[in-house]
Amino acid sequence: TQQLKKYFDCETIETGGSSIDDKVIEQIRYAASTRGVIVFTDPDTPGNQIRHIINQHIPNCKNAFVEKRNARTEKKVGIEHADKETLWNALQNVVTITNEPKGSLTMSDLFEIGLSGQSDSAELRRKVGEYYHVGDGNAKTMLARLNCLAITKEELREVIDQ
Question: Of the four listed, 11, 21, 141, 151, which is most buried by Cβ atoms within 10 Å?
């Protein structure tokens, strides 16, 4: 929050950790209905859990993602460790997560392409997530995010082959 406010004229809502209470959800819902919301969480497991909870309760939120390597110190991960350029780039590439995906990718497609079930699948998902500005995550998370963008199997192959 402090890092975002330091660089940008914005308001933030603190979630208070990965167990978001109903009051915070209602604050976010109100903000989404009156001015819009960009979900901007730390690029770690708790941050992804918070993002998931918000997107489940409040459809069509915009989401900004920062890669872990761009938001860390030797011991900690968080957007408070990202520089202005990294944060700005994330805000320029927001993605709307919907509860009704537009794409038709399946888990079988991810397996076939190598984004699931192989020793280098996590690295490939990281590469794809960085390319499409959707962060990284496990295969199920990546599938949902890619389908929100209507990414095709052919487009994924092109990214992986780069």
Answer: 151
Positive or negative CA dihedral for 64, 100, 150, 35?
A: negative
- Pair type for strands 38-40 and 61-64: parallel
pLDDT digits (tens, 9 = 90+) for 82-133: 999 999 999 999 998 877 778 889 999 999 999 999 999 999 999 999 999 9
- For the chain, how long is the longest CA-to-CA vector? 45
User: CA nearest 106: which of 60, 59, 139, 149?
Assistant: 139
What contacts 157, CB < 8 A, 6 or more positions away? Answer: 113
List the Cα angle 94/97/99 in 5-degree steps: 170
pTM for the full predicted model: 0.82
Tell me which amino acid residue 14 is.
E
Closest CA to 51 of 43, 39, 62: 39
